[in-house]
Write a structure and sequence with these properties.
By secondary structure, the protein is of the alpha+beta class. The protein has 15 helices and five strands. A five-stranded mixed beta sheet has the order 1-2-3-5-4. Helix 2 packs antiparallel against helix 3, helix 7 packs antiparallel against helix 8 and helix 12 runs parallel beside helix 13. The two termini are 92 Å apart.
């Protein structure tokens, strides 16, 4: 029977271990990390083992046989704990498999330890003999584990090695000393319990393990917060990128609209402005010399012709702006009129082929399509030196294909260079506005082919 001081000390240690069991089970319930669970069961086995010794149970009662079982179970849970905390699965897959098999063997050894106890009067002796063999093999295997922990050399492996060494030294001292002197004789001769070596080792190990698990928990929380911050930053980058793309698209559209306004203003100034200026001069001349003119009717006729020309020019600009698309006839007649206007007998022939365009499209889509074709024909006239242009419109179920081909001089370069060199950036902006695609195939002396797909 132990003295009161020893019993109180052991009770304190056992209570501390049980506190660690409950604490880490609560943490496991919160974040579901398996090493918390394995550590809790490991400490629980050691706490129950010390509790049995503290209660002074004799060896000849059945429940005392669980001491060997508890130590076997603690060994199995210790192997699982080391395997998951150090993450052998990632760092050393071979030893991950070894530790996994060794833990299963440790758990399986409980069956023969229970069976041999009930073989007869000598059952307990057989059990002790079998457990000693297990303990000797476990000590040898533990030395190999310590070597692997030393080789891995992470902060977790170093702390595990330190804590395990304390328990290992205490357990080895108790185990080998028990072969030469009984527990009772040791206590009587030295004044303290032989098991105290193991208890001190367990206590120091528990302190070290608690520190490293706390550090692991803190590190896990830090990595979780860092991951959340990175996700927020990535989401913000995506939002910023989308906004930048939207602003660039808007800027491109505004730039295109501004250029078109400038072109229209220039055309009005050069054509209609000049005609109206001439008509004004005619009126001023008539106003000053109306009593002296003999051919007054001729001047009126000339002025009327100038006004008619200005009217036709304005109508021409209006048709060029809306190109008949908003009119009743729709897109195809507008393109036919565009072809008629830009074709040059003996110099440039333009033909149109359409497939599936039996019904009208949305007005805004038709205007954009017409503008794209108008700019493509303008580019051919300005840059290609072509004699033949083919325009093909094909309406599919979900998109419209536009193919414009010419037999001109062609261009050399990649897609980006071709688009810039041929002045197609404004067309590309229109296509991107409708979330479409544009591809260019051009080679020097072989003409050009431009394929545009616009979703409908």
């Amino acid at each position: 029977m132990w003295n009161d001081l020893t019993s109180n000390v052991y009770s304190f240690f056992t209570g501390g271990l049980l506190f660690l069991v409950v604490y880490h089970l609560i943490i496991y319930a919160q974040n579901r990390k398996s090493y918390y669970l394995y550590y809790s069961f490991y400490m629980l086995c050691l706490a129950l083992y010390l509790l049995q010794w503290n209660l002074g149970m004799p060896n000849d009662i059945p429940i005392a046989s669980t001491r060997a079982l508890l130590l076997c179970l603690s060994g199995g849970f210790y192997l699982c704990f080391v395997n998951t905390l150090v993450d052998f699965k990632t760092l050393n897959p071979k030893w991950n498999r070894i530790l996994d098999r060794a833990s299963k063997i440790a758990f399986a050894l409980n069956a023969p330890l229970i069976l041999v106890y009930f073989l007869g009067p000598e059952g307990l002796n057989y059990q002790i003999m079998l457990f000693n063999l297990y303990a000797l093999a476990y000590i040898i295997f533990a030395a190999r584990i310590f070597y692997q922990l030393y080789k891995i050399n992470t902060i977790y492996s170093r702390y595990l090695l330190l804590g395990s060494t304390f328990y290992f030294i205490g357990a080895v001292l108790t185990f080998f000393t028990s072969f030469f002197i009984s527990i009772a004789d040791f206590s009587e001769r030295f004044g303290f319990q032989l098991l105290s070596f193991t208890v001190i080792g367990i206590t120091l190990e528990a302190i070290v393990f608690a520190v490293i698990i706390g550090y692991r928990n803190k590190e896990t929380e830090r990595l979780k917060l860092l991951s959340e911050e990175n996700e927020k930053l990535e989401a913000q980058k995506v939002i910023t990128l989308m906004k930048d793309q939207e602003l660039r698209a808007i800027d491109a559209m505004l730039t295109g609209q501004e250029k078109e306004r400038q072109r229209l203003a220039s055309d009005l100034h050069d054509s209609v402005g000049a005609t109206l200026s001439a008509a004004k001069m005619q009126f001023e001349y008539l106003n000053k010399h109306q009593d002296q003119l003999e051919n007054k009717e001729q001047f009126f006729t000339k002025t009327r012709e100038l006004l008619d020309k200005a009217y036709r020019d304005v109508r021409s600009f209006s048709h060029a702006k809306n190109s008949g698309v908003m009119a009743q006839d729709g897109l195809l007649p507008a393109i036919h009129q565009l072809i008629k206007t830009n074709s040059i007998a003996g110099a440039l022939e333009i033909e149109l082929q359409q497939f599936g365009l039996n019904d009208r499209l949305d007005a805004t889509v038709e205007i954009s399509i017409f503008r794209i074709i108008q700019e493509l024909i303008t580019n051919v006239i300005k840059h290609a030196k072509a004699s033949f242009v083919s325009i093909s419109l094909t309406k599919h179920e979900n998109f419209l294909s536009i193919v414009v081909e010419d037999d001109g001089q062609g261009f050399k370069g990649d897609q980006k260079t071709l688009k810039q060199g041929m002045g197609l950036s404004s067309i590309e902006t229109r296509v991107e506005h409708w979330e479409g695609t544009m591809e260019i195939d051009s080679r020097p002396g072989k003409g050009s082919s431009i394929l545009i797909d616009i979703p409908l």
